[in-house]
Amino acid sequence: MKKILTMVAALGTFGVLSAAANSAAAADVQGNAAAAENKVAMCIGCHAIPDYKTSFPEVYRVPYLGGQNAKYIESALHAYQKGDRKHPTMRAIAGSLTDQDIANLAAYYSQQTAATQNNPQK
């Protein structure tokens, strides 16, 4: 019994350390707007069209991304990855992104203004 408790305690400690390391690694990711330029093509097809609405799975007004807060964009993409946000197209796209991709996209869109190409309005 003592061996089992020791092993459980060791695994618990390992899990806590592993979670802390993953959180630290995610916190260390810095966005690079220039690096996102090869990923934005999958975004601008919907998020850069004035008054665009999707029709699947329901009618939904697609928001502009340009000028949004970087932390908001990161949070939203992570929520799609985890399934906390349900739009199937966004879940698939977010699922294909790494933490670095997400940080890069957030940096790219947060630096845009209303005058930026592919961001006709905010």
Automatic annotation (TrEMBL):
Occurrences of domain Cytochrome c (ranges): 26-113
Pfam families per UniProt: Cytochrom_C
Signal peptide from the UniProt entry: 1-26
S-adenosyl-L-methionine found in the keyword field: no
Transmembrane residue ranges: none
UniProtKB keywords: Electron transport, Heme, Iron, Metal-binding, Signal, Transport
InterPro entries cross-referenced by the UniProt entry: Cyt_c-like_dom, Cyt_c-like_dom_sf, Cytochrome_c_Oxidase_Subunit
Lineage: superkingdom: Bacteria
Record protein name field: Cytochrome c domain-containing protein
Species this chain originates from: Ralstonia holmesii
